[in-house]
Specification:
3-stranded antiparallel beta sheet, about 375 residues, mainly alpha, single chain, about 60% helix, 3 strands, Arc Repressor Mutant, subunit A, Fic-like fold
Length: about 375
């Protein structure tokens, strides 16, 4: 028997158990406020938090099956070719995710989070990769979720038919800009409804996860859109999918809301540790680098290493804008002092590739991923 498409109730939803959620609402908001307090103390978040953007892009893409790691992405940016065409495609998907987040951050400096912005994020996310035939447009076909190769009769979930999407998207956006008793519960509902509607042929999960930090900034719970939640969803992937599925199968929206609030609480605490580690490393590096290189280019060196913790000698000169001869001497001093390590010695036209190992270790630490 062919399963039927699920038609969700319009927003705002009925039946939210506010009393049950009160403890988690308080804990999640408190943890998020602590994280935002840390963000406000960072003078240059675009630089220092860029590794967290990379981490979010890698993990959110990994949830959807992309196999690129942070190290592979860093090495590719440093000029090391991908091992295969498939790996190159995976890396491109992660880079698109980074570009979409950066685009959103710039757009939201002058305008609100809106459906038009969501469409532009989707166009960037799928540019030149799998699913690129449907970039930036709402689906006009009936899609479904199920095992690879499964027919619609074997589907785990069938979202609403395409003719209902315009009305549902309009309703979703009205709820996005409207009031609610608690912003985090509102965000949980928006994220859940977005996944239930499944408005695109591909990229729904990644776009849905992008919306989380953007909405928090829109509602002034964050001063900078850097609350990345994919690590929690990845660690608890089975429950993540189960809670979303229960919305359609049993109508258990409250189970999803509780799970989402736990995710915000726990990931905020993880993010505090990770961002604090990066900030501490930056402060210690600001003291160390001038002593090591004794050059007017100290700040340029520090900023370049934090922007690209794995970098080729060529990229180092391009990004730092340090004159070539001075740059070569600085790289040698950094290498001699153990600030950077060689991953690949230069040979012929291939430049030497270095890593700023202390920062790489922080962002790759699986204890926080």
């Amino acid at each position: 028997m062919k399963p039927e498409p699920f038609i969700p109730e319009p927003l705002p939803p009925s039946g939210i158990d506010w009393i049950t959620h009160i403890p988690l609402i308080g804990a999640a908001n408190a943890a998020l406020a602590r994280f935002d307090g840390l963000l406000q103390s960072i003078q240059n978040p675009d630089l220092l938090l860029s590794p967290l953007i990379t981490q979010e892009a890698v993990i959110s893409s990994r949830i959807e099956g992309t196999q690129a790691t942070m190290r592979e992405l860093f090495l590719f940016e440093a000029g090391k070719p991908a091992e295969s065409d498939e790996k190159k495609q995976d890396i491109r998907e992660v880079m698109n995710y980074q570009n979409a987040l950066n685009h959103a951050r710039e757009r939201m400096k002058t305008g609100p989070l809106s459906w038009n912005l969501v469409l532009s994020l989707h166009a960037i996310l799928l540019d030149g990769v799998r699913g690129s035939s449907f970039v930036g447009i709402v689906r006009n076909i009936q899609n479904y979720i199920g095992p690879i190769g499964a027919s619609i009769e074997q589907a785990t979930y069938i979202p609403p038919p395409p003719d209902l999407l315009p009305e549902m998207i309009h309703n979703w956006e009205e709820y996005l800009v409207g009031p609610e008793k608690d912003v985090l519960v509102q965000l949980a509902v928006l994220k859940g409804q977005f996944e239930v509607i499944h408005p695109f042929c591909d990229g729904n999960g990644r776009i849905g996860r992008m919306i989380v930090p953007l909405f928090l900034m829109e509602k002034n719970l964050l001063s900078y859109p850097s609350f990345y939640i994919s690590a929690y969803f990845d660690r608890t992937r089975e429950e993540y999918y189960s809670r979303l599925l229960q919305i359609s199968q049993t109508g258990d929206l409250n189970g999803w809301i509780s799970y989402f609030l736990r995710a915000v609480r726990d990931q905020a605490l993880f993010n505090i540790v990770r961002a604090s580690d990066i900030l501490s490393l930056y402060e210690s590096t600001k003291s160390l680098i001038p002593q090591v290189i004794r050059s007017q280019y100290s700040i340029a060196v520090i900023d370049t290493l934090f922007q690209r913790p794995i970098i080729s000698s060529t990229n180092f000169l391009e990004i730092s804008h340090i004159p070539p001869e001075s740059g070569k001497r600085i790289l040698q001093k950094l290498r001699d002092a153990g600030v950077i390590e060689v991953i690949r010695e230069g040979k012929g036209r291939s430049p030497t590739i270095y890593q700023f190992a202390q920062l790489v270790q922080i962002v790759e630490d699986e204890a926080f991923v």
